[in-house]
């Protein structure tokens, strides 16, 4: 394995110049050093439908990466709800609107009942930033525990607990990192080993005078390389964090809203109850809406000396989009579909792994899967696989501390044929690919 961890934005990133592409030249001039694009040859996308996107040259790609469009690109129900509400009114959060309250009541009915206060904002980064502030106020402490390749957003505070975003510099003093909950770190006792690591990290924070404010993780450990099993392994780690005086923040931006195929929330698969739940853009199928749910006592304590208001988080169009997503998930059986299609893909990946030693491990739940590649050249192999899949009209991402894992997150609407298309493409790419890099 490579010796140096790779920032998540460097995985499968475009690194070239503008060349003779005028649109690419405009992008690089406008975004400057902050421009982030996929692939050695960036793709200009012009439309999307369901699990497919279409490029400007007419090529259609199966999207197995973009979890933001949770119920599928341009889902007609979501599009119609947004258009209808936009045609009536969209206004800031200081005005009453029945659609907003209806949405929040529908959402709360799907959460643990004690999490009865929900604040809407515009991004998962904002939601996690707010959750950190609530945790610090509730505990009177400043320290946080995250996994080694965690990503929780891009505000100043959240970036400081997102090691997968760090390109250089030391770990912030108030953050402690623990290895991802996998067998490579903890052997056969993932639950016990992970809990012990959280206990040790909390003790280190206490010794340095920070104390533990919160343990925050996404329950699928996405950017760490996708770690889902065994169900329940998270429970002892949450207990360890609470024993140290911290609260548990469940970052459900990626595993939430049915993606694991085992209910609405990833944390429920582990039989744990969070103190705070954060959500992001999948809740609006790409519309910029996010949320933080917590107990009234925690929120009231935070609001004692810090006012909070999000100008446009609780706007009617966001609520209409959110309601349409919940309707689509329920009426179209998307959680069950995630379980069925995920099992189909998992079986196909396991069959590939049985005959190809380059696949070290297949992990995940529902339509959130990771394929870790083996050996010191694994990150380079993953990049070649990503490029090979693109040539076969499948878009996919990378994850893991070193970029050694393929990350698979298609829309919850994925069909049997589309799952087969992905598996056939991956098998063909592996078959055609030489065993070592050229």
Task: List strands and helices in order, with pairings.
Layout (H helix, E strand, L loop, with lengths): L21 H10 L13 E5 L2 E4 L4 E4 L12 H13 L9 H11 L8 E5 L2 H16 L3 E5 L8 H4 L15 E4 L4 H4 L3 H18 L4 E6 L16 H10 L3 E5 L24 E4 L10 E5 L1 H8 L12 H16 L2 H22 L3 E7 L2 E6 L4 H14 L2 E2 L1 E3 L5 E4 L7 H17 L6
Parallel strand pairs: 3-13, 5-6, 5-7, 7-8, 8-9
Antiparallel strand pairs: 1-2, 2-3, 4-10, 9-10, 11-12, 12-15, 14-15
Write a structural description:
It is a single chain. This protein has 438 residues and is an alpha/beta fold. The chain folds into two domains: 8-73 and 338-376 and 388-410, Alpha-Beta Complex (Aspartate Aminotransferase, domain 1), CATH 3.90.1150.10; 76-331, Aspartate Aminotransferase, domain 2 (3-Layer(aba) Sandwich), CATH 3.40.640.10. Helix content is 37%, strand content 16%. It has 13 helices and 15 strands. The protein has helices spanning 22-31, 76-88, 98-108, 124-139, 156-159, 183-186, 190-207, 234-243, 296-303, 316-331, 334-355, 378-391, 416-432, and strands at 45-49, 52-55, 60-63, 117-121, 143-147, 175-178, 212-217, 247-251, 276-279, 290-294, 359-365, 368-373, 394-395, 397-399, 405-408. The strands form three sheets. A seven-stranded mixed beta sheet has the order 4-10-9-8-7-5-6, sandwiched between helices. A hairpin with a 5-residue loop joins strand 14 (397-399) and strand 15 (405-408). The longest helix is centred in the last third of the chain and has 22 residues, at 334-355. The radius of gyration is 21 Å and the shape is globular.
């Amino acid at each position: 394995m490579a010796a140096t961890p790779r920032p998540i934005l460097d995985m499968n990133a475009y690194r070239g110049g503008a060349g003779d592409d005028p649109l690419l030249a405009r992008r690089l001039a406008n975004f400057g050093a902050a421009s982030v694009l996929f692939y050695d040859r960036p793709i200009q996308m012009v439309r999307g439908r369901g699990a497919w996107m279409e490029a400007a040259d007419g090529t259609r790609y199966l999207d197995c990466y973009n979890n933001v469009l949770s119920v599928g690109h341009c889902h007609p129900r979501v599009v119609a709800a947004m258009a209808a509400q936009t045609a009536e009114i969209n206004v800031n959060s200081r005005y009453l609107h029945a659609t907003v309250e209806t949405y929040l009541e529908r959402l709360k009915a799907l959460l643990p009942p004690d999490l009865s206060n929900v604040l809407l904002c515009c991004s998962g980064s904002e939601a996690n930033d707010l959750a950190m502030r609530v945790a610090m106020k509730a505990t009177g402490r400043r320290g946080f525990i995250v996994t080694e390749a965690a990503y929780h957003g891009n505000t100043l505070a959240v970036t400081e607990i997102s090691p997968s975003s760090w390109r250089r510099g030391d770990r912030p003093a108030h953050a402690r990192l623990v290895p991802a909950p996998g067998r490579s770190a903890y052997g056969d006792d993932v639950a016990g080993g992970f809990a012990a690591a959280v206990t040790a990290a909390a003790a280190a924070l206490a010794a340095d005078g920070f104390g533990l404010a919160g343990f925050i993780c996404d329950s699928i450990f996405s950017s760490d390389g996708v770690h889902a099993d065994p169900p329940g392994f998270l429970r002892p780690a949450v207990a360890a964090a609470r024993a140290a005086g911290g609260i548990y923040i469940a970052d459900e931006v990626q595993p939430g809203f049915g993606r694991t195929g085992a209910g609405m929330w990833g944390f429920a698969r582990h039989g744990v109850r969070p103190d705070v739940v954060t959500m992001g853009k999948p809740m609006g199928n790409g519309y910029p809406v996010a949320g933080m749910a917590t107990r009234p006592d925690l929120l009231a304590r935070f609001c004692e000396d810090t006012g909070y208001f999000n100008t446009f988080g609780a706007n009617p169009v966001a609520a209409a989009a959110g309601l349409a997503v919940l309707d689509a998930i329920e009426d179209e059986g998307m959680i069950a579909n995630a379980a069925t299609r995920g099992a189909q893909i998992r079986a196909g990946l396991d069959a590939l792994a049985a005959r190809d030693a380059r696949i070290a491990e297949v992990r995940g739940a529902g339509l959130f899967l990771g394929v870790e590649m083996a050996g010191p050249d694994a990150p380079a192999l993953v990049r070649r696989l990503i490029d090979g899949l693109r040539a076969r009209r499948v878009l996919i991402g990378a994850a893991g501390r070193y970029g050694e894992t393929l990350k698979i997150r298609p829309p919850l609407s994925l069909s049997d044929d589309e799952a087969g298309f992905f598996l056939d493409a991956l098998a063909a790419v592996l078959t055609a690919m030489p065993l070592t890099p050229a």
